[in-house]
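Holo prediction. Input below; ligand is zinc ion.
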Amino acid sequence: MRSPRRCSRNGCPRQAVATLTYVYNESTAVVGPLAAFAEPHTYDLCEPHARSLTAPRGWDVVRHEGEFEPPPPTTDDLVALAEAVREAARPAPPRPDEIEAEQHPGQQTGRRGHLRVIPPSH
Ligand SMILES: [Zn+2]
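Structure of the complex:
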């Protein structure tokens, strides 16, 4: 199974849709559709970075001019999506009355971590 591919540029979180390959013996940088396998001297790029790539001095750039198609989502992408949804659904901060109870340790009701200690009834 294919692992999720991200743009290889520093700090770029976008999904890779293209692969840059340096062909050293021809001094050519080839920007083509996303390669099936990562190989030495290849770098995955997002679409903006793929389109804005400029070659080092003395090098040519051969650029795929069609549409870059993002790969279909992988299982890992779906897991990441599910985690993002759970993150958004996290419980709200404690209500004011719960904080109030913590500020009066003399009371019989206290909190231990996320558990509330209920005093025994007489
Ligand atoms: Zn990028």
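The pocket of zinc ion is lined by residues 7, 9, 12, 14, 45-46, 49 (CB under 6 Å). That is the main takeaway for now.
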